[in-house]
Amino acid sequence: MKNKIYKLTVIASVTCIGLMVLSSCKKEWLDPKPLSVYVPENTFVDIAGFRSAISSISNNIRPDWYGDNAPQITEQIFSEESVEGTDDKAGPAQNLDVQIRPDAELNHVDYNRIGYFWDRQYVTVRAANTIISRVPLATAIADSAKNVILGQAYFFRAFAYYRLTHQFGDVPCPIKEVTFAKTDFATVKREVILTRMKTDLEFGVKWVPWITDKGDINRAALYHLLTKINLALGLFDDAIASASAVISQGSYKLMTNRFGVDAGNASKNITWDLHRPDNKAAAVNTEAIYITTDRLGAASAFPGASLLMRNCAAGISIGTNILTPANRAGVSALANLEIDLMQIYGRGIGRCRSTSYATKEIWDDPNDLRHDSTSGNWVYMENLRYSNPALKGVDTAFGLRLRLFHSDGRLLCTDTLRSWYAWPHYKLYIPDPEHTPMTGGHSDWYVFRLAETYLLRAEAYVWKGDMTSAAADLNAVRTRAKCAAYPVSKMSIATVLDERARELYFEEPRKSELTRIAYIYAKTGKVADNGKTYTIANFSTSNFMVDRILEKNVFYAKNFVTVHGDVMRISQYHVLWPIPQSAILANSDGHINQNIGYTGSATNVAPLDKIPE
Asked: For residues 129 and 133, what is the distance between their CA atoms, to the nearest angstrom?
């Protein structure tokens, strides 16, 4: 097993070497330098070689959710759910008008990870294109096996282009293996790219099996991604059909009964079980469609682990941010204390700071397991206790529950942005034996889960106007969490988005999904829930995504000022991210368009309406 993992890791590296990532390029890239026996000519000759290459692409996707300032946080802060909470230094993406520019720092843990997505997803495209180009040459492999490999490679290429087109809009679209430093890319229309990806996935679902090893690509994953692409293209009947293929197949079902490592703990529930690290890849888990794997001690373990508690939980132990009524530091950053908050909730820093929309406004049913603090699924600040051992015998607050205000009205938290908000403990709690205090350990992570398939089909039904069917799908997810079912009259795109926020926090790429829905409103001209209509022609100056953010995200809406003096702002053109200037400059023999609103867009040319072959 270790040899296989080593081999696929090397394949991933070698496949990337010498091929342009639509970024900086030097002449030495032109010189062929085979660094290993695992070059394409030696690797892509048998099924084992292709499977290892496919696995390596999946490993390439895994870092989206892992590490300090995980790239997923950048998706979160371009949404109504979160903002960047780091407020003790310049750099974090808060004033998006100032900090999000084509020539700015776009891939750094102290800034944002926009550039990561551009680079990493083109690495995925490049690796997939290499596999797709090499499959026909593998004469020792049967045609049926070749088609499975093709289908899985098509999935990864489509996955990358789905994200790219909803992060950056119209983008270059190479679909063949590149074996030299290519510098003449051209921008291709978003819908043209997605239409090709739809065709590829429709081929793949005929060949890729329904059931594969956990972490491998199966037919359900292709249908799930195809549903998103069908929605993005405005093909709502096709989206219903592709989602239904998964929901009705039989192998995949919503988990409704207790299971896994804590099934015998009566204080927990199905929501907790679904998100235990050991349960995500469990054979009994029929809800997992596609997961990315990461295990403590495995050769493939991702450096830095998840760090979820560090990134997303409130910074309860930062300095003297939380005070007792007697004005003493209330919480300690030390672990293994009498009141040990650090080893239960982790030492958060409030980087991915949830909004009141995410922590309060969407929670409309007191029985919702996903927002329940009695079982420990959800943590409110008032659930925590003053833990600083220096208080013992000196301050009567020791051991009492935290308070935001003194009885005289004084605020007892000096930085409510970073250090005072609730969070979903059931999602963030990843035991972490590598760090004391804990920051979030290794865990598999859901990429696609059947609950989202239901919500995607519910959305398609809403676009179609079939609110009865939409309610049935949305309520399948909602009632699993012990909520009362919504009436048909409640169905709308806003209702679907709220349910996605409740169910899919830190799983879905929230910005990409909001942009997809914004495109649908602009394409169809349908009246949005906010009463507005939108057009493609004015997409970067008036769109549903940013209007929704300004309606729901109080930090951007009120231009919140941090303790560091940074102002939180977002503008309509942030519906699309800037194309990194380095990619545009490196493309010396072609032209890559810049998105409207950013410097450089004045030189745009008409995007291609056909993918260059």
From this structure: 6
Q: How confident is the model at residue 300 (pLDDT cuts 50, 70, 90)?
A: low
Rounded distance between C-alpha atoms, residue 534 and residue 522, angstroms: 5
* Beta carbons of 155 and 170 less than 8 angstroms apart: no
Q: Are 170 and 189 in contact (CB under 8 A)?
A: yes
Q: Backbone phi, then psi, for 123, in 5-degree steps?
A: -65, -45
pLDDT the model gives residue 43: 79
Coil, helix or strand for 188? strand
Q: Tell me the average pLDDT of the chain.
A: 93
Report residue 346 as tokens: 């982790």
> Global pTM?
0.94
Integer Cα distance of 554 and 568 in angstroms: 10
Report pLDDT digits (tens) over 188-238.
Answer: 999 999 999 999 999 999 999 999 998 999 999 999 999 999 999 999 999
DSSP classification of residue 81: S
For 37-74, give the secondary structure using H, E and C. Answer: CCCHHHHCCCHHHHHHHHHHHHHHHHHHHCCCCCHHHH
Q: Residue 468: is it exposed, middle or buried by C-beta count within 10 angstroms (0-12/13-18/19+)?
A: exposed
Q: Which residues are within 8 A (CB) of 330 and not within 5 positions of it... i.e. 6 or more apart?
A: 322, 323, 324, 386, 387, 388, 391, 397, 402, 412
Measured CA to CA in angstroms, residue 233 lies from 226, 241, 312, 372 at distances of 10, 14, 33, 37
Which stretch of DSSP H or E encloses residue 421?
A: none
User: Cα–Cα–Cα angle for 532, 538, 541, nearest 5°?
Assistant: 85
- For 330, the 3-state DSSP assignment is coil
pLDDT (average), residues 580-597? 98
Query: Span 522-550, mean pLDDT?
Result: 98
| Angstrom distance (rounded) from CA 219 to CA 593 | 35
Residues 115 and 130: their CA atoms lie apart, in Å, by: 23
Is the pLDDT confidence value at 19 over 60? no
Residue 535's identity, in one-letter code, is: T
Partners of residue 449 on adjacent β-strands: 288
Task: Retrieve residue 24's tokens.
Answer: 């900086």
pLDDT value of position 40: 67
Q: Tell the residue number behind the tokens 């889960």, with chain if given.
A: 449
CA dihedral of 455, 457, 459, 460, whole degrees rounded to 10: 170
Least confident of 103-117, 295-309, 542-556: 295-309
Q: What is the pLDDT of residue 493?
A: 98
Is residue 76 within 8 Å of 153, Cβ to Cβ?
no
In this prediction, residue 304 carries a pLDDT of: 65
- What are the phi and psi torsion angles at 128 (to 5°)? -65, -40
Indicate the residue type of 537: A
Closest CA to 543 of 515, 565, 580: 515
CB 418 within 8 A of CB 349: yes
User: Helix, strand, or coil here: 401?
Assistant: strand
Q: State residue 301's pLDDT score.
A: 53
Identify whether the C-beta of residue 572 lies closer than 8 Å to the C-beta of residue 543: yes
In angstroms, the CA 370 to CA 581 distance is 42
pLDDT tens, residue by residue, 30-63: 344 444 444 667 779 899 999 999 999 999 999 9
Cα separation, 37 vs 57, whole angstroms: 19
Q: What is the DSSP letter of 390?
A: G
User: Radius of gyration of the chain from Cα atoms?
Assistant: 24
